[in-house]
Write a structure and sequence with these properties.
Helix content is 13%, strand content 28%. It has helices spanning 3-6, 26-29, 102-105, 184-192, 198-217; strands at residues 33-34, 40-41, 47-53, 60-71, 76-80, 85-91, 110-117, 122-126, 132-139, 143-152, 156-158, 161-164, 166-173, 179-182, 289-291. It has a 10-stranded mixed beta sheet with strand order 11-12-3-4-5-8-9-10-13-14. Strand 11 and strand 12 form a beta hairpin. The longest helix is centred in the C-terminal third of the chain and has 20 residues, at 198-217. The relative contact order is 0.23.
Length: 309
């Protein structure tokens, strides 16, 4: 039995035998297929971009090349391999965002930097229309570490990948099902700095409460066995394309068709990636930064136990 089928959760599609050829850029490698409604679909092994827009801005400031594990009506599952070159926001002088005091973290000038993802890889799961995605982290040797519920705008699909916008507040879920809110201080600061109004903040809180209900009931994806999943042997690490920040081509638009700007909308928990910068600077000379592993950040509140369904 192969690694991917041995660890594949019940009901999840097993990756096909056709993987994306090595050396092919993430955005260019996606072999989109038309599902009949004009929406782009991807096959296991396709390479796409998982991007987040700067808060309140139309352009991306986070980009992560990923490999498609499953793309179905139920979910999009992607794998970000160790050592993947990503784009993250940094302070204008090149310092990591977490080095800036919280009071000025979201108002200080920023730029972007290319950086390799440090540590183990990350499996990301997103359900259509859901205002969060669930990430799985492992320690060395595939010892499962935790789930991470990233509250965000539902993903917008385009020909080269998916776009979203982070909502600051997150939830960490331990292997035993206990959970805690994460980054409540950043969520509060974002409101003070005008990055989200009271209406959006309440919608984010409501989404978080719905996510907590799923955790307490141990619903999908927590009950599906994704922690036992393993990437297909031989999958190449996707390359970061030079035009990672290009304007999306709408899903289903033929090559050469009319493009559009990203409409509404991660900072990843590892990057504190949200910003109210008045301009963006691409490219940047600040390279070689190390992206911090998301679960290493401190907890915000005490855990609460789930009730198994």
């Amino acid at each position: 039995m192969t690694a991917e089928s041995a660890g594949n959760p019940a009901g999840a599609a097993t990756p096909s035998t056709a993987a994306t050829p090595a050396g092919q850029g993430a955005a260019g490698a996606a072999r989109g297929r038309d599902g009949g409604d004009g929406a782009v679909g991807w096959r296991p092994g396709d390479q796409i971009l998982w991007r987040y827009r700067a808060n309140g801005r139309p352009y991306p400031h986070i980009c992560r090349p990923v490999t498609v594990v499953e793309d179905s009506p139920e979910r999009l599952a992607v794998w970000m391999a160790p050592g993947t070159e990503c784009v993250k926001p940094v302070l204008a002088d090149g310092r990591p965002l977490h080095r800036e005091p919280l009071a000025t973290r979201y108002t200080s000038p920023r730029t972007t930097a290319r950086a390799q993802w440090a540590g183990t890889g990350v499996l990301k799961l997103a359900r259509p229309g859901e205002p969060w995605s669930v990430w799985l982290f492992w320690q060395r040797g595939w010892q499962f570490k935790n789930w991470y519920v990233n509250l965000e705008e539902p993903h917008t699909r385009w020909a080269g990948g998916v776009d979203s916008e982070d909502h600051f507040l997150d939830i960490t879920v331990a292997p035993d099902g206990s959970w805690r809110w994460h980054d409540e201080d950043e969520f509060a600061q974002a409101q003070r700095d005008g990055l989200m109004d009271a209406g959006l903040a309440e919608r984010v809180h409501a989404a978080g409460r719905r996510a907590v209900e799923v955790i307490r009931e141990w619903g999908p994806p927590f009950c599906e066995g994704w922690e036992n999943w393993r990437p297909r042997e031989g999958w190449p690490v996707p390359a970061l394309p030079d035009d990672w920040d290009r304007t999306p081509v709408p899903a289903g638009t033929p090559a050469g068709g009319t493009s559009r700007s990203a409409e509404d909308g991660e900072e990843g928990p590892d990057e504190g990636a949200n910003s109210r910068d008045s301009s963006h600077s691409w490219p940047t000379g600040h390279t070689g930064e190390t992206v911090r592993d998301a679960p290493a950040r401190g907890s915000v509140s005490g855990p609460a136990s789930r009730s198994a369904s």
